[in-house]
Write a structure and sequence with these properties.
This protein is an all-alpha fold. 72% of the residues lie in helices and 0% in strands.
């Protein structure tokens, strides 16, 4: 839950800096590319509220870690590629391959943590269900 809010605050902070046209180096060039897909991953997988209600996004995009990571990576990359062919379009900007690398890095960390933590939860659940010898 803490990660969700840290990613969300960072996302809002980088958006504010970009909207104010502040040249903040890494924070305005790549931080959003790292945290936005990561925040969307956490939200789409429902990792921020395991006991909360399940949304349609969580049932589709967030159904498995693989689907979530791949869907968000492809969608993020398509927004970046659209900047090459349509620089003043829906996602204005200029194409930068390092943005795609940032998407991959942010999502890879979330995917790895999700798999690691879900594996630990699965092991703990199996241990609890085994009868004592």
């Amino acid at each position: 839950m803490v990660v969700y809010y840290l990613l969300f605050v960072t996302c809002l902070g980088t958006a504010a800096l970009n909207m104010l046209r502040v040249h903040g180096g890494f924070f305005t060039n790549y931080a959003a590319d790292l945290v936005v897909p990561a925040w969307l991953y956490v939200a789409s997988r429902g990792l921020h509220s395991p006991s909360g209600r399940t949304t349609r996004i969580q049932r589709t995009v967030g159904h498995t870690p693989e689907i979530a990571a791949l869907t968000l990576f492809v969608a993020s990359t398509l927004t970046e590629v659209s900047q090459h062919y349509w620089p003043h379009g829906l996602f204005p900007g200029r194409f930068d391959i390092l943005d795609v690398v940032a998407y991959a890095c942010g999502l890879a960390v979330c995917y790895a943590a999700d798999k690691l933590l879900s594996g630990e939860r699965g092991t703990a659940a199996r241990v609890k269900r085994q009868p004592a010898a």
